[in-house]
Amino acid sequence: MLDIKKIVFLLLSVVLTIPSMAQLDLNWPEDKQKAQNHYTRMMDAMSTANGRKPRPEDAQSAVKDYRWLAKNAPDLDNKKFSLYKTGVNIYDDLVDATEDKATKMAYQDTCLMIYDIRIEKGEDKAYVMNYKGSKLYKFYYVRKGQEKYLYDQFQEIIDLNGNKTFYSNVQYSMKVLAKNKKAGYMLSDEQIIETFTKLDEITTANIAAGGKKLEKWKQTKDKINDDLTGLVDINCEFIATNYVPKFKENPEDLAMAKKVFSMMSTAKCYDDPAWLEAAIVVNKSEPSYGMNKTIGRLMISDGRLDEGIAYLKQALEMAESGEEKGDVNYLLAQSYYQKGSKSTAKSYAVKAAGADPKKTEAYVLVGDMYMNSSGDCKGENVVETRAVYIAAYNWYAKAGNSSKMANAKAQFPSIEEIFTYGMKEGDNVTVGCWINETVQLQRRPS
Question: Which of 4, 160, 272, 359 is deepest in the core (most CB within 10 A)?
């Protein structure tokens, strides 16, 4: 008796397989039917459509079909490279399923060779090498005598992909440096720093870009910084002796500026003027929100207010989120207050809180400016003069700062002073000078 369920399943498999092959626009050899049979069996064995990962026996079955296709239909799909991508998966599974060391290494080498075939067939080299990196590290890191090969391969991955390098390959590259140094391969401190600088730039760029893998990139930055400290004794004195003089000779040398900036950042040499000088050169070529903000803050702390404000304004133009805009507006408010431009400072403080409602310290800053202006904003009598404290209280209230509210309230006019000048609570009183704000009269607590 015929097994109806089995027949239906086989028919369904054929129906599902034929469209997929058609969609791939496969280049069938002369023995098309035989090739289709091999391809269907291979893809069916390695398919994850049934909700499970391929088993070792699936790879053992599929490898026979793959070998036939690789020999008899090597150009089966030179557009999407489906044959060779499946081959990588087959041999990777065989590696995991094999205990014999020699056989395992043979499978590993075949797997890596398939990546090279994909490149020979015309697939994008940078893209393929990026994916090859994980297998290179997995297969070759434990092999003795392959340190130089690994180093060269990962250098190529980094150079080809730049900021598109996978975060895993950035981490592997540092591990490979350590592997080479431990094995005695002659890597100079300069070569190590050169590689680290590239990796740090890639990591920094990806952190600045944000995205779904932001946390992975932040973790990567921590890891490569930790790895560097174990390879080279990077300290401020080392950098100042070996690299700062070269940077001073040609301060417009972007590559050297990046190297000095990266190393000094790792060693936390923020107090060295060379760090700021290098940051300015890097930012000139590759301006960013974070760099402009950092340079601006450092210049302001150094008393270079006008220069610092200019950098902060550039950061504001590049700010994207409300939080970023709130941060920079608040820094500008502080800077203008430090400069003595209170009206402008208040304007930026209001913008800071408007951009980021959590930035309540901006309201506190306005309150502080009012409190410190009592001597400059005197009215015609003591009640009008003390009205500035009511204005400060209102700003502290917006921030929800109860302690500062209490301090301001203690300076309100007394009820006797209010009566003396023929006023009453609730009257409108205008605070003059730069504040120019009207408040409702309140009395000081008894």
Answer: 359
